[in-house]
Write a structure and sequence with these properties.
- The protein is α/β, with parallel strands linked by helices.
- The chain folds into 2 domains: about 280 residues, Aldehyde Dehydrogenase, Chain A, domain 1 (3-Layer(aba) Sandwich); about 190 residues, Aldehyde Dehydrogenase, Chain A, domain 2.
- It is about 40% helix and about 20% strand.
- It contains 15 helices and 22 strands.
- A 7-stranded mixed beta sheet has the order 14-15-16-13-12-18-19, with helices on both faces. Strands 9-8-7-10-11-21 form a 6-stranded mixed beta sheet, with helices on both faces. Strands 5-6-22 form a 3-stranded antiparallel beta sheet, with no helix packed on it.
């Protein structure tokens, strides 16, 4: 059965999901399909009253279900059943997401959605394997570090990978015994509403997962500043992360996990497998049209192999063909909005005006929807806008080096430190660079995550604080208290 579909036939769950019910809401933010630019519905905007109601629903659900206090294996089984249902409904879920987002339907079923189910199962298994511990004291005392859930966690997810980002937030928070109020991006909200509906069908307590739709200034501000939200988890831009920190500081104090922007380097030495490097590097900036915080958008290559590597990358970048996200064969995504595409184009034009050379691309594509040409820019210095700015599009810069010291200096960015890539067959060099690169993730001879969900992700500098995925993410959804008993 083909996954391709007619976008005009898809029914969307338009509304907030509160207390186990879809709450229809009219009006709001006009939404346009990235693949053809056509308006198709509006995203409701939850105000303070709706957020208050939603947080109260989560509090009641947490208390009546005793979700944080039940036998941990019960949480594991419930989350595993939810993951099973997500997989069973993968085609329906993929069509909802492909209609609204930049994710091609052909990549969703076996990719994003299957991975999301895996991640939920991964976190579910922590529920009965991580907990309190006894600690060494003298014989006259008994020391314990008790672990417990926070309560109601507030989460905000971005538009670029809607389902999998929701899984990043919901999986560890629920496994750790919390309830969640989640605000998806107003540009891609409906697949998140659908997986919340599936959670209730799978048997999770009603009201444990709540989804409020809306924008950042109104809904996001109300959620992050709410006094009954005990912890915040956010993935998005560094600017939005700073605004959340400011809002939380103004309204109180609470822990936060922030996975923010990036401008990640990919360093290639002459001893690397250049074909493998070219495939990984071109793929990192054409996958989802470069709309990923970890996209490796700065190529830093040893000078004596720069021409050969650049030619190979150019060949791969020129080979991509755009297509609507509802076509199963599509591999190259549109940009999320006309506004974002215009921003990408303006930075590219500014880079050229500052002296850069555009080797390929650099223009809006002549096709329906918001497509932008894969772009490779050379002759850039560290002050060039294409080096400084997180473009969040299919734009790669290239710089050359002759020594390791030069490579490290070029790799360092004044603002970001989210991810990095290193291509070399020298093990000693690999260890040296892994220690010195200022990034939360270092990929070697690859540039992508694997399905090893135990590896955490998070950044240095303004790329964020805390970690998603891995054991770190589960533990970040638990708080600890010290108990000392005199015997």
């Amino acid at each position: 059965m083909s996954l391709s579909f007619d976008p005009n036939t898809i029914r969307l769950p338009v509304g907030h999901f509160i207390g186990g019910e879809l709450i229809p809401a009219e009006g709001g933010i006009e939404m346009r399909r990235p693949s053809d630019g056509k308006s198709y519905t509006a995203c409701p905007v939850a105000g303070v009253d709706v957020v208050d109601r939603t947080v109260e629903s989560a509090k009641v659900a947490l208390k009546t279900s005793n979700w944080g206090g039940v036998r941990p294996r019960e949480r594991t089984r419930a989350l595993q059943a939810w993951a099973d249902l997500i997989e069973a409904e993968a085609e329906t879920l993929a069509r909802i997401e492909a209609l609204c987002s930049t994710r091609p339907v052909g990549q969703l079923v076996a990719g994003d959605i299957a991975i999301t189910a895996e991640q939920i199962r991964f976190f579910a298994e922590f529920a009965d394997k991580e907990g309190s511990e006894l600690v060494p004291t003298d014989d006259a005392n008994l020391g314990m570090i008790m672990s417990e859930p926070y309560g109601v966690v507030g989460a905000i997810t971005p538009w670029n990978f809607p389902v999998s980002m929701a899984g990043w937030k919901l999986g560890p928070a629920l496994a750790a015994g919390n309830a969640v109020v989640l605000k998806p991006s107003e540009m891609t909200p409906f697949s998140t509403v659908y997986i919340a509906q599936l959670a209730v069908k799978a048997g999770l307590p009603v009201g444990l997962i709540n989804v409020v739709l809306g924008d950042g200034p109104t809904t996001g501000t109300a959620l992050t500043g709410h006094p009954d939200i005990a912890k915040i988890s956010f993935t998005g831009s560094s600017r939005a992360g700073s605004a959340i920190m400011e809002n939380v500081a103004r309204t109180g104090v609470k822990p936060m996990t922030l996975e923010l922007g990036g401008k990640s380097p990919q360093i290639v030495f002459a001893d690397a497998d250049l074909d493998r490097a070219a495939m990984a590097i071109a793929g990192s900036v054409t996958f989802n049209a470069g709309q990923a915080c970890v996209a490796g958008t700065r190529l830093i290559v040893e000078k004596r192999v720069a021409d050969r590597l650049t030619a190979s990358i150019l060949e791969r970048m020129k080979a991509v063909r755009p297509g609507p996200t509802w076509n199963e064969a599509t591999q190259y995504s549109p940009i999320i909005s006309e506004r974002q595409r215009a921003r990408i184009d303006s930075i590219v034009k500014a880079a050229v005006e500052a002296g850069a050379e555009c080797l390929t691309g650099g223009n809006v594509m002549d096709s329906p929807g918001y497509f932008y040409e894969p772009t490779l820019i050379a002759n850039v210095d560290q002050a060039n806008p294409a080096i400084i700015e997180e473009i969040f599009g299919p734009v790669l810069t290239v710089q050359t080096f002759e020594t390791e010291e030069e490579a490290l200096a070029l790799a360092s960015h004044p603002t970001y430190g989210l991810a990095s890539g290193l291509f070399t067959t020298d093990l000693s060099r690999t260890i040296r660079f892994a220690r010195k690169l200022e990034a939360g993730t270092v990929w070697v001879n690859r540039y992508s995550r694997s399905r090893d969900h135990i590896l955490p992700t998070g950044g240095y500098k303004r790329s964020g604080i805390g970690k998603d995925l891995g054991r770190d993410s589960y533990l970040a959804n638990r708080r600890t208290k010290s108990v000392l008993i005199s015997l």
